[in-house]
Amino acid sequence: MSLVRLRGVTKTVRIPDAEPLTILDGVDLEIAEAEWVSVVGRSGSGKSTLLNILGLLDAPSAGEFDVDGVPVHRLSSSARDRKRGADIGFVFQQFNLLAGRTALENVVTPLLYASGSRFWRRRSIAAEMLERVGLGHRLGARPEVLSGGEQQRVAIARALVRAPRLILADEPTGALDVETGAAVIDLLESVAAKNGSALVVITHDPAVAARAGSRYRLDGGRLSAVAGTAAA
Ligand SMILES: Nc1ncnc2c1ncn2[C@@H]1O[C@H](COP(=O)(O)OP(=O)(O)O)[C@@H](O)[C@H]1O
Ligand SMILES: [Mg+2]
Questions:
Q1: Total-model pTM
Q2: In this model, does residue 232 exceed pLDDT 90?
Q3: Ligand 1 pocket test, candidate residues 11, 19, 49, most atoms within 8 A of CB
């Protein structure tokens, strides 16, 4: 069974005094456990909208969307929230760390909702995760004093600390120089593989996209598989 499966997913939004805008147009996509997927597309092609739907932050206007074989529209909003919290980790272009909080506090945050021993051990679990992304020596550093690459590594530790089955990254290298960006993708790839998480990276960088086993392109809201990859 696929982790997620989209069939004919469409997203339209109403705009005052204009025709409705179609952002996603009949998207078919299946993602298996531990699959490494990239999606490229120009600015405005619908990449973030697709990622937000996959992350249960936004809902399709039409089409089928199953997670673990269950149609998402059948889940209650609290079941959706639980699924998002437990199974999905997000990494954004602008890192989205809590300012004024240390690296450790940022990575602890998702564990505040954990139960039992994971809650009580949250600080050591978060410290271990920061160790894994190479920041074991910067636990007490606030985002303001960290470089862009270091901030993105904190964000990756935060996304991974609950061992999600799906990691969604929206332009994770967009604010980084080429070398730092490549190191961030190395890290995402290795932590995802070690955890057995599926990884979806949205990017407009062809070099980043080329590293994924399954590659797709979005163009004006239409998704196509790139020939010669596992997607096609
Ligand atoms: N809620 C919305 N209302 C109106 N237009 C939107 C909304 N969300 C996205 N759009 C438009 O849809 C298009 C695709 O957006 P987005 O998914 O953010 O693209 P990308 O991430 O590929 O740049 C853009 O033209 C954007 O302005
Ligand atoms: Mg975007």
A1: 0.94
A2: no
A3: 49
